Fold this protein.
Amino acid sequence: MSGTDTTAVGMTAMTPANRGTDPFASQLYRVARSYRELADTVTLELTPLAGPCATFAPGQFNMLYAFGIGEIAISVSGNRTDQSKLIHTIREVGAVSRAVAGLGVGEVVGLRGPFGVGWPVEAAAGSDVILVAGGLGLAPLRPAIYHLMENRGRYGRVTILFGARDPHQLLFRHEIEQWRESLDVDIHVTVDHADAGWHGNVGVVPMLVPRVDLDPRETVAMVCGPEVMMRFTANALRSAGLSDDRIYVSMERNMKCGIGLCGHCQFGPTFVCKDGPVMRYDRIAGIFAMREI
Amino acid sequence: MEGLETILAEQPFLAGLAAEHRKLLSGCARNHRFDAGGYLFHEGDAADEFFLIRHGRVALEISAPGQAPIVFTTLGPGDVVGASWIIPPYRWMFDARALDLVRAVGIDAACLRGKCDSDHAFGYDMMKRFLPVLAQRLQATRLQVLDVYGKR
């Protein structure tokens, strides 16, 4: 598959002419760059074989197709102002994610999207913003962080809370250090487990919320990470006085079609692919912790 | 003592504490300074004092023979260090190490227990403040144990 324009059986290659008309048609992208972020996490930079690169809103996702293996929903983790490429950060968990993450430079992947509802970066203009990420949850939040940094004057205080399993699992570590140096963003990093050699915070990321000076009436929260972590974080934000309609979470379910037709990602009365993945907490709080959902 | 009362009034843990109770508490309080790397207390020591951090960060650690100490939480300004002073036999169950220069107010445990016993309204107020801290840390420990970032 390396370096060739390939159309898989059952998939339609998108051209500039038909792009946007058929949501099930994949556009072909080539891996321009691949780099390992963590032992099990890879970032791919993708450029279209033909036509313009798809544009996206922070928080949206694409369906990436590893030919002959399967398709997987992956959030865009790059900067939307760079319209030359799409960046995705993938954790190797199953057969499809391993296949996509394992693509080498020059190899081709099918891409449908972007899909879904993203972070409310425009609606949050004028407000303070707190972003809370756990583990790989920093990847879907990174486009929102880029947007806030590049439009810093349109927002009040910007706070980033990031938690990871241990110091070796800190995603985008170099970039976090750069953001911290910008001085107008308040960044707190914590890890769940550490030995005495780590001089940073230890403890779960929701525990950082009470340590931040928040004005609950002026703050919008964007939360992304494992669902349990988001539940604990939402509770911590509520305790800090934020109302549910100021809290946004990015949901994850088994997405297939990406346009709310197949029902695989149904979450109560909503479809995560179409009504999410970013959802306002007041709309799902009643079912968020329901194990049957 | 006026200085300590003012310092205690600034502690978020004691927000809303009645002036007479603050005065009672300040009678058991003293200022502390710990250099980076110094220990506030060690596991097994008598829990004869707990601390309100004013400045700096503290790592709570558990060590096992032949292994590097495991840090299970870090605390910062406004946080309370230690609850073993409430629970018999009043012994610390972990080490507390200053990660950087730490300034803290120490509250003499025997003194405070005595005042709580003799003034139940004051004692109840103290318990209402400590219980949420304990519950919050229990919740945090549950989340740590869940290892939510691990592969499923």
Q: What stands out?
A: Residues 1 and 26 of chain B are 7 Å apart (CA to CA). The longest strand of chain B covers residues 49-55. Residues 120-146 of chain B form the longest helix (27 residues). Chain B touches chain A through 25 residues (CB under 8 Å).
